[in-house]
Amino acid sequence: MTQHEIAIGRFENSFAKLPDGFFARHHPTPVSEPVLLAFNTELADELGLETQALSREELAQVFSGNRVPTGADPLAAAYAGHQFGNFVPQLGDGRAILIGEVRDRAGRLRDIQLKGSGPTPFSRRGDGRSALGPVLREYLISEAMHVLGVPSTRALAAVLTGDRVLREGYKPGAVMTRVAASHIRVGSFQYFAARDDQASIKRLMEYVIERHYPEAEHAESPALALLQAVIERQAKLTAQWMMIGFVHGVMNTDNMALSGETIDFGPCAFMEAYDPDTVFSSIDQFGRYAYGRQPGIAQWNLARLAEALLPLIDPDEKQAVELASAAVSDFAPIYHAFWLDGMRAKLGLVEAHDNDRALANALLDGLQRTATDFTLAFRRLAEVHRDPSASPFLTLVGHDAVLIDWLADYRARVAQEAGNPEARMKVMNKVNPIYIPRNHQVEAALSAAIEEGDLGPFKTLHGVLAHPFEEIAGFEAYTGPAAPSERVYQTFCGT
Ligand code: AMP
Ligand code: MG
Fold first, then answer.
1. Which of these is catalytic: 163, 254, 264, 284?
2. Is 254 one of the annotated active-site residues of the chain?
3. Bridge partners (DSSP) listed for residue 486
4. How far apart are CA 176 and CA 457, in angstroms?
5. CA 482, CA 278: separation in Å to the nearest integer?
6. How far away, in angstroms, is 197 Cα from ligand 2 center?
7. What pLDDT, in 10s, does the model give residues 110-161?
8. Nearest residue CA, atom 16 of ligand 1?
9. Which of 26, 225, 464, 472 supports an S-S bond with 219, CB 3.0-4.6 Å?
C-alpha cells in the first residue's frame, strides 16, 4: 500500500468488468477542505467496512473523493432516460462516481457511490457538484425511508467540501456517499435500446438477473421473467410510498432503480394534509409526479423498460409485444393488491373482507375533504380502540359528520374480527409512523446547517426519525403538520 492509498474494505468492481460502453472510468476531482459532517457507523458495519480505525479526517478524505480507497475502480455509468416524458438519449452519472461494490455481512453486493464528486464525461453543462442542502436532505430522507421499512438507497456519509457551488447564489458544497443494491435504472436499458445495441441490452439483462433476480435465469424467457419481477417490486415499492405519503417528485425513468429501491432523493417530500394532487417540486409545473399519480407513472416507466427488452422477450415481434403488454398491464392489479394489504394494516385489519377497499377509500375521501394530516389521522384512529370516545380522532377531523358515520362503519368492521382492542392499537402504531420527515422540519434543519453552520437541528431530526413508530415525550413539535406560517410549498432539485 502506497502512502496515498487507504483501505476501507474489499472491492469487487463487477460493474467495472462489463464492456467499455457501459461506463467511463473516472476518478473524483479533489476538494479543498473536506470536513466529515455525518457518518453512518451502523451501515458501515453492515457493509463490513474497515473504517473503525480511521480518523474523522481520513473518513472525510475518502468520502469526499480526495483519496480513492485501495482496490476501487471508480467509474461514471452511462444511462439515458425520459425526463418529464421527454426522452434524453444520454444522461449518465454527471455528478456521481461509483467507487465500487462491497459484499455486505448478508452476502449481498452493494454499490458505494459518491454524489457531487466533480465533473465526469457525462456532466454536459453541469458542474458535477452538489450543494450542502440537497446532500443533507437525501441523508435524512433516505435513512428515514429505510427505518420506515421502505426499500431505499442508504446514506453512508456527508462531507463538506470547503468549496462553494453556484446554485441560486453561492452555497456550501458537499459530497454525499450513498449505498445502493445497484445503480442500474430503467434508463440504463434505454441507453442501449436508443443505440439499437442488442448485445449490450442482453449483457445488462444478464447482469441484473445475476445480481437482483437470479430466479429469472432459468425461466423460459429470462427477459420476460425479469420484466415481471421488476414490475412486482415496483408495484410493491409504489404502494409503500403511498402508505406513508411520500412524494418522490422526479419519477423520471433514470430515477427508477431495477433493484426496487427508492433512489434519487431530489425534491421529494412528505404529504401532510391528504390530497392526491400534492406536488412539492418547483420544476413539476403540471403535477406529472403528484402523490396520486405515482402508481400510473411507475407503470408508464415500466412500459419504457418493456420496450427496451422487447427483442429479448421473443424473437417474434408481435408475440413479444403481446407478452410485454400483458406484463405491464398486470402492474395495476398487483399494485392494487399491495395497496389494499397496506391499507388493511394501517386500519388494523387482519382479515380480508369484500368492502375493505371501499372502507379505506371512504376514509381517504373524508381526510381529503377535511384537509386532515394523513400521518396523524392513522395514529389518532388507533387510539379509538383504547378510548371509545374517539375524541382525539374526532378533534383532528373537526367532528366532520361524514367521518363520524365512517367511524361507526369502521367499528362495525373491526367488531367482525377477533383480537383485543389494546393489541390492535399497538399493531396499528407499528405500521403508522408518528414521526415522518416533515418538510418544514427538514428545511429548518438544512437552513441551520447552511446559514449558521449549525448541525444541531439536523442531528436532532435525524435522531427523532430513527424511531418513527415510538412516540417520545418532549418531541411533540415533530409530530404535527406545519403551522400555516411554517408551511413549505416548494422543494428544489439538487441540480
Ligand atoms: P437528477 O435530476 O439528479 O436525476 O439528474 C439528472 C441528470 O443530470 C443526471 O444525468 C445527472 O448526473 C445530471 N446532473 C444533475 N446535476 C448535475 C450537476 N450539478 N453536474 C453535472 N450533472 C448533473
Ligand atoms: Mg437521477
1. 254
2. yes
3. none
4. 19
5. 15
6. 23
7. 999 999 999 999 999 999 999 999 999 999 999 999 999 999 999 999 999 9
8. 495
9. 225
Report the predicted TM-score, pTM, of the whole model to 2 decimal places: 0.97
Ligand nearest to C-alpha 88: 1
Minimal-distance CA residue to ligand 1 atom 7? 91
Residue 416 to residues 209, 411, 412: CA-CA distances in angstroms?
44, 9, 7
Tally of CB atoms within 10 A around 5? 12
Q: Rounded to the nearest whole angstrom, what is the distance from the C-alpha of residue 109 to the centroid of ligand 2?
A: 21
* pLDDT band at residue 410 using 50, 70 and 90 as cut-offs: very high
How many CB atoms neighbour CB 358 within 10 A?
Answer: 10
What is the biggest distance separating any 2 CA atoms in the chain, rounded to whole angstroms? 74
- Tens of pLDDT, residue by residue over 51-75, are 999 999 999 999 999 999 999 999 9
Within 10 Å of residue 3's Cβ, how many Cβ atoms? 5
Question: If you search the block for the grid coordinates 432516460, which residue do you land on?
Answer: 81
Residues 6+ apart with CB under 8 A from 462: 38, 139, 140, 143
How many A from CA of 387 to the centre of ligand 2?
A: 46
